[in-house]
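PROTEIN SPECIFICATION:
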Amino acid sequence: MTAPTAGPLQPDESMRGSVRICLTALVAGVVIGFVGGVFRWCLQTADRLRIDFVDWAHQLPGPGWLVPIAAAAVGATLAALIVRWEPLAAGSGIQHVEAVFLGEAKPPLIRLLPAKFVGGVLSIGSGLVLGREGPTVHMGAAIGTEAARRARLPDSEVRMMQTALGGAGLAVAFNAPIGGTLFTLEEVTKSFRVKTVLATLISCAAGVACSRLVLGNHADFQVEPMDAPALAWLPLFIAFGLLTGCLGAAYNGLTLWFLDHVGAIRRVPSLAKAAIIGAIVGLAMFVYPLSVGGGEDLTQRILGGQNLVLSVVIGILAVRFVAGPLSYSAAVPGGLFAPLLAVGALWGLVFTGCFNAVWPDDASQLAIPMALVGMAAFFGATVRAPVTGMVVVTEMTATTATLVPMMAATAAAVLVAYLVGSPPIYESLRERMPDEESIERRGNG
């Protein structure tokens, strides 16, 4: 007699598996919601304290400018020390989530969670131009992996769960549940498998709901109600999108240039590199505090309609355009996404200001719409996930008035980025990831 072969799963068995996946996603979503909410609260507190700290330093007699330089250098060094303990905590983490889904890396262990949390607070809180979303996505992936293992899901579902919870992490980071779901499906999996969709939807909804218990039930940015820009301005938004595509390609190139060249300096220890980069950022922080950090306060001022002198906006844009890639090369916990939004908003202001200087009529009413469009278009040009970018910006600002010009400009920006041969930034970062053996050697060294 021949041994019976295992047949396909019976409907009841498949249903029980789906229910277990959904329950696991719910529990893990609650955890990342509270963890991510507290993480964001810590960063908001650090932002306020940093601005007060710089004001105090300005009042010191003598070389008071040395104080924020030293503070930023110490914060970056401490974050680098955490990376020495857990090498996987370096950088954004989004590229690692993608690599795990593709089977190119192992799912993260739960020890990554405290490393990303504390390291992210130190690096971003000290003023480095890094985003909160990278650590939150990676923490979500670690929580999803641990939850799936404890639920005794098969390896394929463990990878799926870390991917879904990575999207929940992004949803929590930006208070954007639909955006987090789309991020998983558009950027990471590039597919719509039913179990993945369900796990991501449940974890994103639970995560954002719990984070709002910590941070408040409101949109991230307060934007005054506005009318949709006249359709006659649509060609201007498209032209803006074409230029934004070039700017996004340049930003990606600069990020990779700093990453490669700073990493190639073997004689300088990683701790010293982080300290030097932190000191440079600390000097910029002393000159103008809003030119550093994640950029949330700066973006709110722009979208809130605060009057900023065009020369000051150009200066902040130039600093953040360089400081973001430079900060990322320090190899400390922190992402790229949030600084991209601030750069996009600044670029929208600069474009409007320059256009208004040559246009015979007053076009200043386009400033806030162009800033909103710039946030989505610049993200689309760099990350190459245009729908995610547009939805995240829409959810963060709770406004749909600019959707039509936003879609046109984002499409133009993504097209230009493709035409100039600029690869998506997370794809490039994934190609530069060290292999698993290298990471383990660094962790044991």
In short: Residues 1-7 have pLDDT under 50 and may be disordered. The chain is about 70% helix and 0% strand. The first helix runs from residue 11 to 58. The CA atoms of residues 308 and 384 lie 30 Å apart.
